[in-house]
Amino acid sequence: MIDYSILSWLIWLPIAGGVALLAMDAMGNKACRQVALLVSIATFLLSTQLYSYFDMATAVMQFQENIPWIDAFSANYHLGIDGISMPLIILTTFTTVLVVLAGWQVIQNKTAQYMASFLIMEGLMVGVFASLDAVLFYVFWEAMLVPMFLIIGIWGGPNRVYATIKFFLYTFLGSVFMLVALIYMYMKSGSFSILDFHMLPMSMTEQVLIFIAFLMAFAVKVPMWPVHTWLPDAHVEAPTGGSVILAAIMLKIGGYGFLRFSLPITPDASHSLMWLIVFMSLVAVVYIGFVALVQQDMKKLIAYSSIAHMGFVTLGIFLVFALVDNNGTQQGASLGMEGGIIQMVSHGFISGALFLCVGVLYDRMHSRQIGDYGGVVNTMPVFAAFMVFFAMANAGLPGTSGFVGEFMVILASFKANFWFAFLAATTLILGAAYSLWMVKRVVFGEIANDNVRALEDVNAREFVILATLAIAVLVFGLWPQPLIEVMHASVDNLLVHVSVSKLPAPETGVALLNAVQP
Amino acid sequence: MTIPLSDFMPLAPEIFVLSMACIILVVEAFVGTKLRHISYVLSQLTLLVAALVTWNMLDVERVIVLGGTFIHDPMAALLKTSIFLITIGAFVYARSFHSSSGALRGEYYVLGLFAVLGTMVMVSAHSLLTIYLGLELLSLSLYAMVAFDRDSPVASEAAMKYFVLGALASGMLLYGMSMLYGATGSLDLGEISQALSEPGQNSMILIFGLCFIVVGLAFKFGAVPFHMWVPDVYDGAPTAVTLFIGSAPKIAAFAMAMRLLVESLGSLSVDWQGMLIILSVLSLALGNVIAIAQTNIKRMLAYSTISHVGFLLLGLLAGTTEGYSASMFYAITYALMAIGGFGMIILISRAGYEANLLDDFKGLNDRSPWFAFMMLILMFSMAGVPPTVGFYAKLSVLQAIIHVDMVWLALVAVFFSIIGAFYYIRLVKLMYFDKPETEEPLAVSADMQMAISFNGLLVLGLGLFPGGLLALCASVLA
Predict the structure, then answer these.
(1) What's the Rg (C-alpha) of chain A?
(2) Residue A184, beta-bridge partner list
């Protein structure tokens, strides 16, 4: 075991690095970039320790730290991770390194503040994944908005102010209702510990209301249809690094919230409202897929495709109820959930990579319009190879990580209901259509204009970034076993937990009879 | 009636502040213009000593002296200490304001000290008369302070409005007190409380009295619908005065509510609870919505004050010790944020130009990243975004209100705080996303820089470690 508080280090090292960067503003952009890279790499290397020392056989929270924090609320500084949060933490530290690299040359204005924002956000995001105390979780969850608000607003595109205020207010709106729910459960259980919340028995009405409060917070974050409208705006206006973090990590926090809060705290409500989530997810997959098809702006297209892919995540997570109902046992029910989690990690790589690809083009041409491009392959062959590869992965090509998650979720939905599977599978067509059509228009064909003719291929820095991501996408596509092993115990434990009703004794029988009616 | 000398011990801070205020007044009259800053130094020393003395009285048992008119308990000690510390900050900002506007005047500090004395009397009042005495001492000092800049028509108008409406509210309060006296036969808060607990009360006259008292209180708080003076006075008064009005008197108003509603009229809590719900919801709604339409930052902060008062009242109306301590935490931390916010306005003012528009904050990040960051902390704290202290203030109030099964009220409160978030982040937008209108660097004195930095970092630091102050607020009420 590790004998130092590794999770605290992972949270506070980047935050301290960010604060230090703010203080060394005067030392010039170069020094700031180097320090930022150093801190982010150190954090990433440190986070790989989590994997090395992780005990895959148990679902118990590991690397726990528990220190009294606010006595008045009996809130503790309680950290700990299981197989669900561990991969997401490593994804966070990994992505941050790439984001720091991606902003290397482009960001000349207030470089120190830019890098500091990303480092501070990294620490806060790790904090979200590692918190086992609701107050601590909420503090990280909300504090995360502040750096992102600044990143979009300061370094974003022309319409950045509108986009960032929309982003902030949308997410704030969702989360305050979660706060009320958390306080309510504190009143019931006498502590803010998330693990205590998992054990808290609650009546059906309470569960449904709390479920809806959580849904408001997490659905906005994911984002699920119909509260997704902030995402295309935010993505389009955000600088490349901001888009990558948004797509790769921030959206996952919504999915993580469902796994850590909604399912285990309100299992009965989740069960009876499963149809709602499945419906919203399928709408995201099908309808948003069509919306993505008609986009003229590359970033917007990828943003909509993110929403569609995240629909798969929520679909996979909530299918477990349908599977348990159909099979009568938990055997095989973990398929959908594991698929959803793999999809989260994989989408982190792929969408991040696609946004970086658009960033590479945008840095050269200062346009994101598909119509301004054409024939990029002629002038940027190496880049074109990467972009085609990532687009294929986005479409779910077997052999890439995009395939694994989607396939598992579709398989699970087949076991649950044919029509779920039918609708979910349309993504194979739609995803291929919008990804490949974009590639066709941007990358292939004749050279469209003189601007494209003047393009230079990727430099070493960009090559390293894209190649790293390409390797990650391939590795998890061909050999997802390590990821599945890590999460298996935790997912199984969650399933067992979810299938036990939390209703007070006399109500249980009635509720099981009318499980569909809240 | 003879009063034993020991009765005066709990009054030591009051007596000290009073004597010092008189001494400074005399000194002020005799020193030449060159030594004008001496009254500032003396006032700060007075407040510092008083803060130390009261802080040491925190553990003193609850005593009632001077024939039942004056109470000293841990709550009074904590509130007074925070009033002193907040006022020290306010005076630092005020001095910077006065030196940049070229009119360093000692009367400000003397009036300020008398106002502080008024708040102290209110905090420690144990009879209706003492409450009224403290309130009037505070109000009269404030009226004079608002009219301080006698050549400014806006300030004179604001002072006039404040005075007329304030007099009306005092009249209401007195009328309510007289009914209470008529019904119970006593001015002593303890005796009133005892009389009310006996059966056979004339509830009609009591409820009428309560209504008038609540109206008077709501006026002092600036709660809707008795808020009309707030924006005009905040806007019209010199910024140095606004920041004082917006901070320490709010703590005193909280104390007055505690003494009147909780300690003496506790058995009527069902009645005042309903009244406070109306005041609170209206304040939250109107304050937050109208603040959006403001272009003048002082007016915006005035409406923001109104909405914060709504939150503060939520804790009071919960009617539990938990709620009272949440409100107390809210009052103290709000005062801290308010002086910071108004201090920032002084900070960006230049010689001969009093900043009061939101646009004056444009591009502050380009002119001074550090102070932009301080303002960012203050704004996010007012919006209730962690990890700042404003979040815990809201959290503890929400918790208290949910504990008494008024979840709907908590939902209303968080809903309006989302609307409120908009105008706070709009200010952040101006500072960070817009280009500055002037490249002129900020000309700020060193003590002002220190004070603002300390203020901002305190808001952040209390946000990371709120446990101590929360526990303190809970323990003084236990």
Answers:
(1) 22
(2) none
The answer to whether the beta carbons of residues B188 and B127 sit under 8 Å apart is: yes
Q: Could you tell me if A12 lies within 8 Å of chain B, comparing CB atoms? A: no
Rg over alpha carbons for chain B, rounded to the nearest Å, is 21
Q: Which of A22, A25, A172, A202 to mutate to test the interface with B (most CBs of B within 10 A)?
A: A172
Question: Rounded to whole angstroms, how far apart are CA atoms A193 and A74?
Answer: 9
The answer to whether B177 and B171 have CB atoms below 8 angstroms apart is: no
Whether the pLDDT of residue B64 is over 80: the answer is yes
Tell me which residue in B369, B373, B433 faces A153 most closely, judged by beta carbons: B433
Contact flag B466-A70 (C-beta cutoff 8 Å):
yes
pLDDT tens-place string over residues A258-280:
999 988 898 888 888 888 998 99
pLDDT tier at A507 (50, 70, 90 boundaries)? low
Q: How far is B465 from chain A (nearest CA, A)?
A: 7
For A127-134, what is the mean pLDDT?
A: 92
| Res. B224: pLDDT tops 90 | no
Across-strand partners of B70?
B65, B125
Does A16 lie at the interface with B, CB-CB under 8 angstroms?
Answer: no
Residue A513, pLDDT > 50, answer no
Partner residue opposite B429 with nearest CB, options A113, A165, A183 = A165
pTM: 0.91
Residue in A142, A154, A180 nearest the CB of B411: A180
The helix-helix angle for B446-464 and B369-383 (nearest 10°) equals: 40
Q: B410 vs A165: CB contact, 8 Å cut-off?
A: no
A433-491 per-position pLDDT tens digit: 989 888 888 888 888 788 878 888 888 888 988 999 999 999 888 888 888 888 888 88
Give me the helices (H) in B31-106, please: 37-56, 74-100
Q: How many CB atoms lie within 10 A of CB A57?
A: 9
Q: Do A186 and B399 touch (CB under 8 A)?
A: yes
Please list every residue in chain A whose beta carbon sits closer than 8 Å to the beta carbon of residue B467.
Answer: 69-72
Residue B13 to residue B47: CA distance in whole angstroms? 9
Of the candidates B418, B426, B470, the beta carbon closest to that of A173 is on: B418
Q: How far is CA A219 from the centre of its chain?
A: 12
Residue A518 clears pLDDT 80, i.e. is over it: no
> For residue range A277-304, what is the model confidence (pLDDT) as tens digits?
989 999 988 999 899 989 888 889 999 9
CB contact under 8 A, B418 and A72: no
Each residue's pLDDT tens digit, B381-421: 999 888 899 999 999 999 999 989 888 999 999 999 989 88
- Calpha distance A255→A249 (Å, rounded): 10
Chain A: closest CA distance from residue B333 (Å): 16
- B148 Cβ contact partners less than 8 Å away, ≥ 6 residues apart: B105, B107, B108, B111, B155, B237, B238, B241
State residue B377's pLDDT score.
92
**CA dihedral defined by B153, B159, B164, B165, rounded to 10 degrees?**
120
Identify the three-state secondary structure at position A76: strand
pLDDT of A330 > 70? The answer is no
* Residue B195 distance to chain A (closest CA, Å): 35
Mean of pLDDT values over A105-130: 89
Residues of A in contact with B432 (CB under 8 A): 150, 153-154
Phi, psi of A131 (to 5 degrees): -75, 135
DSSP A134-161: HHHHHHHHHHTHHHHHHHHHHHS-TTHH
Instruction: Give the pLDDT score at A505.
Output: 64
Q: Write out the two tokens for A288.
A: 């948003």
Q: At what angle do helices B107-123 and B248-257 cross, to 10 degrees?
A: 20
Number of DSSP helices (H) and strands (E) in chain A, helices first: 25, 2
Which A residues 23-42 touch B at CB under 8 Å?
25
